[in-house]
Design a protein that fits this description.
Distance between the termini: 74 Å
Order of helices and strands: EHHHHHEEEHHEEH
Strand content: 15-25%
Structural class: alpha/beta
Helix content: 25-40%
Number of strands: 6
Shape: globular
Largest sheet: 6 strands, mixed
Number of helices: 8
Length: about 260
């Protein structure tokens, strides 16, 4: 007779990041292509707006890696040039114009920063567990404000942002939860720093609002685990999808040029 174990096996946690959960909500078919199918279908060409965002984020990361005495606007051209990603642009002329644009954003942005102040974390990975999730994510910046921590997320898209964007961002809420658990300090304020306009969209979470975001994340994870079909959600976003050519439904959407989102 088989001897029963003394303890039940612990439930298997769903390992995820906010972007992984968001990918499923945007389109289950895209999620399948990204995280389930192996080998994954080939992606389309790189997007210029992704290259721009990565370049700016890395330049700011390296700005904070400098000694405080060297954190000055004069350091930015070298930092941006060293991290510049060239993929996706229409031609050299467009790339040069976007580089100058990005440098202007950075120069204006660092004027609002105290070069002597070190954040708690820069490009810091934080993690947390629930009964069903093993959650992790990388935060652009974690600031100390008084006795609490603040999540800072850089944005380089063309559209402006509002407090509703900060309030509704599940990624920022999950970052705040994980940051609070990692550092054992309160973390409720989340901020979107929109570099093109120099504006900040912020929201002060409560325990209840953070809990709602966490429950929503767990519900999405449960949907993913139960999904066996991964049907596509067809819409205008299909024009921007990396896997457009591999999706019969999405391929009917008109394609976007890789540089469309950075055109003035």
């Amino acid at each position: 007779m088989e001897q029963l174990g003394l303890f039940a096996s612990p439930p298997r946690l769903f390992t995820c990041t906010p972007s992984k959960l968001g990918s499923y909500e945007d389109c289950p078919r895209r999620y399948r292509f990204s995280y389930v199918d192996r080998p994954a279908p080939p992606k389309g060409p790189p997007w210029a707006h992704n290259s721009l965002g990565a370049s700016v984020h890395t330049a700011l990361k390296n700005w904070y890696a400098l000694e405080p005495a060297r954190r000055a606007p004069e350091a930015l051209p070298g930092l941006l040039k060293a991290t510049w990603v060239r993929e996706g642009y229409r031609d050299d002329a467009q790339e040069r114009e976007v580089y100058r644009r990005a440098l202007g954003w950075l120069e204006s942005y660092v004027e609002s920063l105290d070069p002597a102040e070190d954040p708690v974390g820069v490009e810091r990975t934080v993690a947390a567990r629930t009964e069903t999730l093993a959650l992790s994510g990388r935060v652009d910046r974690i600031d100390q404000r008084g006795d609490e921590l603040v999540i800072v997320d850089y944005k380089t898209g063309r559209s402006g942002l509002s407090p509703d964007d900060a309030r509704g961002s599940r990624a920022l809420a999950l970052y705040a939860i994980a940051t609070s658990r990692v550092f054992r300090k309160a973390c409720r304020r989340v901020e979107l720093h929109h570099l093109p306009t120099g504006t900040v969209a912020a929201f002060e979470h409560t325990d209840a609002s953070l809990e709602r975001h966490l429950r929503r994340a767990e519900a999405t994870a449960a949907d993913i685990v139960a999904d066996t079909e991964f049907r596509p959600l067809v819409g205008p976003h299909c024009s921007w999808c990396d896997y457009r050519k591999s999706c019969p439904e999405g391929s009917t959407a008109p394609p976007k040029d890789p540089w469309t989102a950075v055109e003035v």
